[in-house]
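I'm stuck. Please check this protein.
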Amino acid sequence: MTPVSRRAFATAAMTSMASLLVGCGGGDEAKQTSRATQGTTGRATRTPPPSSTPVKAARALGRSVPVRLLIPAIGVDTPVMRLGLAADGSVQVPPITAHDRAGWYRHSPTPGQVGPSVILGHVTVGAYGDGVFRHLARLHRGDRIEARLENGTRAVFTVSSVRTVAKADFPADDVYGNVDRPELRLITCGGPRTGDAYRDNVIVFAALSSTSP
């Protein structure tokens, strides 16, 4: 990442990340619920940290923006849009539309670069129903994730860990902290739902396992 990107990445990691995607497809009511529940506590369902579940790493790739994401185990095949920072310094989320898409946080590494590449998606999209990451929590260690890049390369990742954590306990260091190999983070909402809001975040940790042109 460039110095500017690193600063933006660190800024987002330190600003209200516990409330990331808290509305998960809701409207104004969900945003109000988000503000009201940022301090909510809850017990996190944790698996061992990603570093304790090693995946054989492939050689890192150069920078190329992701354009599509495929997760065969849960039937995901989605275009990937670019996301930046919202006015309050938090990470943007994909818009609420009938044709829901995942979004890559553009201040994170691209999939296959050294570091944690971050892709977000909704679990539900309001009146439109299920979001693109509706079944993200069903993934297991060893499942395959493929990111197709703008330059034609396919970066294949293997899931090392799936964690469901309370938003109040969002593990920013684990998600956004420096790593010495290419890794992927997929993030959505999960856990109990009240109205349009969810208590938890589901986070998938994966490591680059192979590449192909």
About this structure: Helices lie at 3-14, 28-37, 172-176. The two ends are 23 Å apart (CA to CA). The chain has three helices and eight strands.
